Q: What sequence folds into this?
């Protein structure tokens, strides 16, 4: 199992290194730094998917909130839970500081709709922040939203595990209240980096 986890981690690191520029290449600003803000021509776009509760969800449902979007899959052995826990830790830290985190909407979009049914996601998503919403859909719908966010993903058969793994770009997108791309967080960012970036967007809870 340890070798599987190392393989999975290495695959994602390679994806970030060689394909991560696809996320930024269409932006006119230099976004090589994780803290760089970009323009509306960056990643993102409309979507309609199914939540882990089985309801239809659109990006329009989150207008007025800052979406934090992560593409992954529930069978991911290491990278996805690490990144989702990092986001969860950041939101919990802000809440401990007295901030109202309701303007932040974390979204987990599955790149493995074959296995990640709403029922599967309903068991996985509650492991993280209570406000997180898991999203899935048909293979065509997932491919469409991944293309809009410029996220690479591909199925990879493996002799070391039952089934298969998914190679995918592992970053957290921060979108503004109108659904436009603001910035992203990579594996280099720590929970406190996310906390520091979100704090100016929030107010203390009443």
A:
């Amino acid at each position: 199992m340890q070798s599987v986890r190392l393989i999975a981690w290495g695959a994602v690191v390679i994806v970030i290194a060689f394909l991560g520029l696809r996320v930024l290449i269409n932006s006119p600003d230099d976004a090589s730094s994780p803290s760089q803000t970009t323009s509306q021509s960056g990643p993102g776009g409309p979507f309609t998917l199914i939540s882990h509760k089985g309801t239809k969800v659109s990006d329009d449902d989150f207008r007025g909130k800052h979406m934090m979007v992560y593409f992954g899959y529930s069978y991911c052995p290491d990278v996805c839970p690490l990144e989702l826990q990092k986001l969860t830790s950041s939101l919990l830290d802000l809440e401990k500081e007295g901030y109202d985190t309701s303007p932040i909407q974390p979204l987990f979009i599955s790149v493995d709709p074959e296995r990640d049914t709403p029922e599967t996601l309903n068991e996985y998503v509650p492991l993280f922040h209570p406000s997180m919403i898991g999203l899935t859909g048909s293979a065509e719908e997932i491919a469409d939203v991944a293309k809009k966010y410029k996220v690479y993903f591909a199925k990879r058969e493996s002799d070391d595990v039952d089934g298969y793994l998914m190679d995918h770009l592992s970053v957290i997108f921060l979108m503004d209240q109108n659904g436009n791309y603001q910035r992203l967080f990579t594996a280099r960012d720590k929970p406190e980096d996310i906390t520091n970036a979100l704090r100016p967007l929030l107010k203390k809870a009443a």
The domain at 2-201 is CATH 3.40.30.10 (Glutaredoxin). The chain has six helices and nine strands.
